[in-house]
């Protein structure tokens, strides 16, 4: 089962929005939100909440891809998120997430008994390539009790 298939199976909101996981690696995750009238805002583009969910889902995909081998000893949790809406979004939008710290560095902190935190940076783009939003989600790996 791919990371995207796993997230769609276990995260109902990803299923609800019909998110499409195009790429999920430890270096990059790309997730698309189809253009769906049920999730539009008052000006006919994707609702801010849908774009937030799209970007957060892309961040979760890269976290699972990068740290999936650590899930037996730690659970990934979003600590905080900040999003900026830059341009009008219309039609299909795609979120691309990148990890803000090297995987080995984060795992070394976990190995040292710490609860590491790390940022994931996400860009949301329209089909014409324009950046419509930018988001940063800070994640942690909480060691299992």
The biggest beta sheet, please? Answer: 6 strands, antiparallel
The strand count comes to 6
CA-CA gap between termini? 27 Å
Give, in order, the helices and strands.
HHEEHEEHEE
Broad structural category? alpha+beta
Low-confidence stretches: none
Count of alpha/pi helices: 4
The helicity comes to 25-40%
Coarse morphology: elongated
User: Order of strands side by side in the largest beta sheet?
Assistant: 1-2-4-5-6-3
Mean pLDDT: 95
Radius of gyration: 15 Å
**Proportion of strand residues:** 35-45%
Which helices and strands appear, and what pairs or packs with what?
Elements lengths: L2 H8 L1 H5 L3 E5 L4 E5 L14 H20 L6 E12 L7 E7 L3 H9 L5 E10 L4 E13 L2
Antiparallel strand pairs: 1-2, 2-4, 3-6, 4-5, 5-6
């Amino acid at each position: 089962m791919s990371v995207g298939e796993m997230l769609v199976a276990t995260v109902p909101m990803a299923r609800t929005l019909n998110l499409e996981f195009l790429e999920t690696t430890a270096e990059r995750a790309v997730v698309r939100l189809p253009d769906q009238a049920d999730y539009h805002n008052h000006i006919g583009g994707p609702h801010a909440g849908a774009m937030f969910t799209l970007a957060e889902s892309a961040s979760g995909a890269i976290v699972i891809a990068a740290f999936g081998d650590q899930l037996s000893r730690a659970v990934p949790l979003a600590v905080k998120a900040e999003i900026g809406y830059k341009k009008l979004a219309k039609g299909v939008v795609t979120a691309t997430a990148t990890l803000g710290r090297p995987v080995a560095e984060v795992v070394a902190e976990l190995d040292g008994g710490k609860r590491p935190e790390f940022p994931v940076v996400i860009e949301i783009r329209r089909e014409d390539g324009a950046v419509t939003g930018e988001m940063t989600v800070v994640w942690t790996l909480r060691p299992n009790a």
